[in-house]
Amino acid sequence: MSTQGITLNRYLWQQYKDDKIELDLLMVLEQMAYAGKILAGEISRAALVGHLGLAGEKNATGDSQKKLDIYSNEVVIDAFSHLGLVTAIASEELDEVELIDCGYDTPYILVTDPLDGSSNTDVAGSLGTIFGIYRRESTGLCATEADALRSGTELVTAGYILYSTSTILVITCGDTVQGFTLDPNVGEFLLSHPDIRTPESGKVYSANLSYYADWHPHLQQYVDYLSDRTDKSQPTSLRYSGALVGDFHRCLLQGGVYFYPGSNEQEDGKLRLLYECAPLALVAELAGGKASTGTQRILDIQAKSIHQRAPLAIGSTSAVSFYEQFLKTGTS
Ligand code: P6P
């Protein structure tokens, strides 16, 4: 490894000196990276330490919780408790917004899916942590749920950690998107994907086609069009891992579109707006991509409840726009 590797801390310190990031936000991102390092190690050892399988509970949105879901949530909470920077957390694994550090001047709110892709935990599939940071608006000693019910346009920063063949931290920093790869030999995230830009189009589309029969007819026609593989300006290769973070990361770097639409059974789909769709939508847009429900920009949606769901189409601008057009008209 080159000794010239730029660590996350060195990168963020330079951004601070260039007035691109505030010092307290630097610390918040460092803490998220710290949680990611712990989770990367624990996920890779899960089978050896009894962390596979179900925990026997369901989370607030009815998903069966895996042992790693609960462990990941605890790691993230511990990383921010009593730090004096994050006053409350809205998490997929918590029924309500959890106050973790009351204080009149504790500035930030964390929204997070501590472990995205839980169906992959027992089969060594890719997993992720999704996070977004809002500046607190309330002024009392303790934050309120309203501090977390925001629109994505208010996010101060957002990103994700992908646990796969390597552990990659992607963050928004100002109006840029930066990627760092964990070097386990030194325990540091090193800058590996500077200034990420999403290609205008791409080969891959990512969706669970087993729900095809339950989708809007226009969406069925869209999938039929892609499956025909003759329009090379649109995605022609299907990739679906069961982990949004991994499937989105592919679209972010190589272009393409991930979509999880509403259906006859679930009108707003499965994904949660606050801690899955909005943080990734900020990453997508700052990298030159697009994120919508199919009819509305994700970042414009004001969250009304912390576990509110939203349909999602995210990735290359042209691919998402084509998806929106087909959903509206049923034709190319
Ligand atoms: P399905 C994981 O639970 C998740 O939230 C995303 O990471 C993933 O893309 C999707 O749900 C998988 O859902 O219905 O295809 O199993």
Q: Which fold name corresponds to the CATH topology of the largest domain? A: Fructose-1,6-Bisphosphatase, Chain A, domain 1
Query: Under the CATH scheme, which class of the largest domain?
Result: Alpha Beta
The total beta strand count reads 15
Which residue ranges are poorly predicted, with pLDDT under 50 across at least 5 consecutive positions? none
Distance between the termini: 47 Å
Describe this structure in words.
The protein has 332 residues and is an alpha+beta fold. It folds into two domains: 8-193, Fructose-1,6-Bisphosphatase, subunit A, domain 1 (Fructose-1,6-Bisphosphatase, Chain A, domain 1), CATH 3.30.540.10; 204-329, D-Maltodextrin-Binding Protein, domain 2 (3-Layer(aba) Sandwich). Helix content is 29%, strand content 24%. It is built from seven helices and 15 strands. It has helices at 8-17, 23-45, 67-80, 217-228, 244-254, 273-286, 317-329, and strands spanning 54-58, 64-66, 86-91, 98-99, 108-116, 127-135, 157-163, 167-173, 176-183, 188-193, 204-206, 237-238, 256-260, 290-292, 312-315. It has an eight-stranded mixed sheet, sandwiched between helices. The chain has a five-stranded mixed sheet with strand order 12-11-13-15-14, with helices on both faces. The longest helix is centred in the first third of the chain and has 23 residues, at 23-45. Bound molecules: 6-O-phosphono-alpha-D-fructofuranose. 6-O-phosphono-alpha-D-fructofuranose (P6P) binds at residues 116-119, 208, 242-244, 270-271.
Main attributes?
single chain, 332 residues, alpha+beta, Fructose-1,6-Bisphosphatase, Chain A, domain 1, D-Maltodextrin-Binding Protein, domain 2, 2 domains, eight-stranded mixed β-sheet, five-stranded mixed β-sheet, 15 strands, binds 6-O-phosphono-alpha-D-fructofuranose
